[in-house]
Amino acid sequence: MGLGSRLQTMIGWAGGILAALLLCLTISAGAAAQTPHSRLVTGSTAETAPAIPRDLTPEMVDTMLARLTDAEIRALLADELRRRAEERAAAAPAVDRLAEIPARLVELEANIRARLAEWAEAWADIGARRDAIAERLRLAGNGIWGMIAASLAVAAAGLIAARAVSRATHGWRRRLANCGRDTYWDRVGRSFALGLVEFLPIFAWAFVTVRTAPLLSGPLGPMIDYVWIYEVGVAYGWGFLVIARRAFAPDAPLIRINSFSNATAGQIHALVRKAVLIGAGGWLVAGLSPTLGLGYPPALTTVALAGSMVAALFLAASIRNYRRIGSAVADLLIADSDAPSAFARLSVAVAPVALVGYLVFAWLYWIANWIESGQQHLYGPAGTLVVLLALPILDRLGFELCDNLKRADSASAARYHAVFHGGWRMLIGIAALLLTADLWGLDLYGLAKGEMASPWAGMTFDIVITLLIARFVWQLILAALHRDPRVASSGEDGDDEIPAATRLDTLVPLLRNLLLIILAVVVTMILLSSAGVNIGPLLASAGIVGIAIGFGAQALVRDIFSGAFFLVDDAFRVGEYIELDDQLRGEVESISIRSLQLRHHRGPVITIPFGELKNVINHSRDWVIYKMSFRMEPETDPLQVKRIVKAVGKEFLSDPEHGPKFLEPLKSQGVQMIDDDSAQVFRVKFKCRPRAQFVLRREIYHRLRQAFAENGLHFARRKVEVVAAQDGNDTVQLAAASVGDAAQDTPARPAR
Predict the structure, then answer these.
(1) What is the DSSP letter of 715?
(2) Does residue 670 share a domain with residue 691?
């Protein structure tokens, strides 16, 4: 299974879990909105409260109260109560939250046992509530059947209005679902607009229901109190289904803003719909209990059962897809890595277990608080899933934003895009962490930087933020100063097709290393300052230490300044072939602050400090004129040699491989010298691109040797005349001996 499908499955189950928990959250919010709460009403604080004298007598108190208005007395009392509360808080000992956990668990267990006992007793005595039920039913003016008919009439009126609006907006929905342009932002806009249109039937249903119910208040009787429960359950559940339908888009694949397949989107949406129906059905059934006089224990029990059914539904789905979740995480973290890191392997192994464990923990947390206090407490568990589910959407949003900022299709644009996308991920990761902690009741920023924050917490916060910013800055530097590494061409016979290095190729690594040093120094100073170290004396002493180091490292300073001037003069670049003397030559492989490294054509790497460089001969600039010498027989005709060299030069110019390397054709320079009447030394030359001379000289030598042989011309042998003396008056014989091997003379090494 591919990465996309596995990620779709994993996010799908998370979306289903989110649907169930959000449903409970919205229902509880609706219930809280309809439940009256007592409020502490204080007087106006705009008026200035009088000051209380330090020494008060009973007479002064009576006189003071007689002069004050009610608003002033309330303000004075509020200030006094606030002062006493602050004094008690300041005098209270520090609370160890960890030490309170066992006591809180014991208290929670006791409360749950007591509440379950109350529920069991209420269910056992359910028959005793017949009188309460009868009293509630007597409120219906037309009897039970009239109450049922009126309830159905209210529901039917709302549904008819919703159906009418849905039919009226059918054309709009069809046009919005058929996307004309396949762009991300167009799909987002159409999905949002289609969601708004699909909310219109819900608004029509709610409006008609709210208007119809008071008109039938007599026949409805006790069910008039059930209307708000009905509206909350249906409206919230219906609205959440609309959001889920637009998020997964099973009915509109052309405007789907995720990469789900049609089958996956349909399965996920069906799972979410099932969860919403279970949750909303439980809420509606539970609302009948207090409405009809059965009391609250049956309602609380029904909500607990419905929520547990939803949790069990998604827990079973997660267990069934246990391996697929692990495979999706593996594809995400180690798909293109031959040697995955320990963190990646651990994440792959832990991800399925963590998901199942979190579902169990979220359900236990919710059910415990529901049984104990009748409150949902879903902000932490459900909110965490909301944040996690929103991260891929925000990540895609950041990807598209970065893509719009840098539209050029180049390697540089891709690098900047990756850096800014990484910065976006860092921002949303920090925001997600802070928001998740806040949903669980933890103010991380307040714990780190608040008035009562620990110094270690604040220091850790500053260090983490500094390192994250430094990492982003360094990634930006790498993107701006990126240079593709050159492949060494292995000395004299290297490939001349490799492009010559530019000055940027030489200077960029040095500038990058310099910026790294500066960034490291600045970050170190900030970290030391965050840790409470006074860096003022450190900065002052750094100047003195620098002066001392300068006197003690004069050779190093000489190397650094010499290298700087060599680079300013552009004497050599990375990848160029240079010669320092008869023994030191090679390709410039790397340049540091104080030295350069040469790669000899036989392999060794030679490191030379800049201060030791005297003369630099660069063989890789612009063009090269190469001269070759040949020793020919004394009777060789120079004109014939010239014609042969010219013909060979034309052959090389027309050669598809070697012709482009020539800047000027091969030419004969005639007889250079006569070697003691035993040979004529001819010289030829050619002008070519840098580094091409090493290949061309070999090919030219072989071709000229062949051409000379075809025309009856031969290279001259070196000869030595030996005079041998005989006994007596014998005449002197001249014997010519051939010395050395019969090998032909090779071209002399040219001056460079």
Answers:
(1) B
(2) yes
DSSP 235-294: HHHHHHHHHHHHHH-SS-GGG-SS---HHHHHHHHHHHHHHHHHHHHHHHHHHHHHHTT-
Q: Does residue 608 have a pLDDT over 50?
A: yes
- My answer on whether 611 and 638 are in the same domain is no
The backbone torsions φ and ψ at residue 558, rounded to the nearest 5 degrees and listed phi first, read -60, -45
Range of the domain at 650: 624-717
Q: Nearest to residue 362, comparing CAs of 78, 733, 17?
A: 17
The answer to whether residues 642 and 594 belong to one domain is no
Domain co-membership, 708 together with 673:
yes
Spacing of C-alpha 186 from chain mean position: 24
Question: Letter for the amino acid at 616?
Answer: V
Query: pLDDT tens across 56-102, in order?
Result: 666 566 666 666 666 677 677 777 777 777 777 666 555 555 567 78
The chain-wide mean pLDDT, for the chain, equals 75
Structure tokens at 571: 């004497």
In order of 168, 519, 529, 542, 552, the CA distances from 539 in angstroms are 75, 16, 12, 5, 20
CA–CA gap between residue 572 and residue 500 (Å, rounded): 11
Domain boundary at 600, 618, 636, which? 618
pLDDT, residue 127, reads 76
pTM here?
0.57
Q: pLDDT tens digits, residue range 265-276?
A: 888 788 888 888
What is d(CA 596, CA 588) in angstroms, rounded to the nearest whole number? 7
| Residue 675 belongs to some domain of the structure | yes
Instruction: Give the CATH number for residue 594.
Output: 2.30.30.60
Domain identity same for 651 and 700: yes
Residue 241: inside a domain: no
For the stretch 67-71, contacts whose Cβ atoms lie closer than 8 Å and that sit 24 or more positions apart, written own/partner, are 70/43, 71/43, 71/44, 71/47
Which of helix, strand or coil describes residue 238? helix
Is residue 404 helix, strand or coil?
helix
Residues 6+ apart with CB under 8 A from 182: 254
pLDDT band at 200, cuts 50/70/90?
Answer: very high
Joined tokens for residue 575 = 């990848």
The domain that contains 712 carries what CATH number?
Answer: 3.30.70.100
The secondary element (H helix, E strand) that includes residue 112 is helix 97-124
Residues 565 and 603 in one domain: yes
268 contact partners, CB below 8 Å, separation of at least 6: 8, 12, 13, 15, 16, 248, 250, 260
Is residue 330 in some structural domain?
no
44 C-beta neighbours (distance < 10 Å), count = 9
Domain match, 628 and 711 both = yes
Distance CA 208, CA 234 (A): 14
How many structural domains are present in the chain? 3
pLDDT in tens, 482-508: 766 555 454 445 554 555 555 556 667
Contact between residue 14 and residue 317 where contact means Cβ atoms under 8 Å apart: no
Find the DSSP H helices in 406-534: 411-439, 444-449, 455-480, 503-530
Is residue 109 predicted with pLDDT exceeding 70?
yes
Q: Give the pLDDT confidence of 364-422 residue by residue, as tens digits.
A: 888 888 888 777 777 888 788 778 777 777 877 787 787 776 665 667 777 777 888 78
User: In terms of domains, do 702 and 632 share one?
Assistant: yes
CA 470 distance to own-chain centroid = 15
Q: What is the pLDDT of residues 29-55, one digit of tens each?
A: 333 333 333 332 333 333 444 556 555
In the block, which residue shows the tokens 């809280």?
A: 32
Asked which of 442, 465, 493 is the last residue of a domain, the reply is 442
DSSP single-letter state for residue 1: -
User: Using CA atoms in the order 65, 71, 76, 77, what is the torsion angle rounded to 10 degrees?
Assistant: 90
Residue 32: CA count within 13 A, CB half-sphere: 10
Inside any domain, residue 581: yes
Which tokens go with 438? 């806040």
Residue 207 contacts residue 161 (beta carbons within 8 Å): yes
